[in-house]
Amino acid sequence: MSWKFAGIIFKKNYKTAYPELLKQLDVKYSQSAEGFTFADAISRENQATALGQVNGNTLLLHHFLPYDCSYEPGAEGRLDELLMPLSSESDIMNYIVDDVSGTYCFSLFSDGKRIRRWAAEPGKIWCNEGNPVDQETSSVSKNAPPDIFSMSEDEAHLFAVWEAFAGIPFQKLVQDDAPLFHFFL
Description:
Strand order of the largest sheet: 2-9-3-4-1-5-6-7-8
Strand content: 25-35%
Number of helices: 5
């Protein structure tokens, strides 16, 4: 399967403050709906911003917003500037998964600053700033059935960090039919 989605994980429960969080991130919307699964939220057909709660974390899924983080060494993007102050309240992970191009990126923010930035494309790691976190590994998650969720080394690297940060294996969340997400259009 080929994944293409992006998002932000907040180590904070924003469920009662979704509108305020979206305003802080400069995401505009005119209506909302609830009752969507994680698979619905990461679907290529979803053009909304999805917000949901998993293990006490707030997951924001949006196909374009995470691209406003910079993955150029030493540079900051518009979203970096918004996430740094928010990370004073809780740790944050921004990420991009693009199996189509073979591009995988993540940034970790804590205590008002970016502490880690990593980005890879086929055959090349083009950004590797900050100290690697303990969860960074090049092995595929042992929970993944290899015939369904086979991963490249770079994808496995990103998902090892993602799973440790989110507190749940990606594969388990994809297969979960629970309506955990709200859509904001």
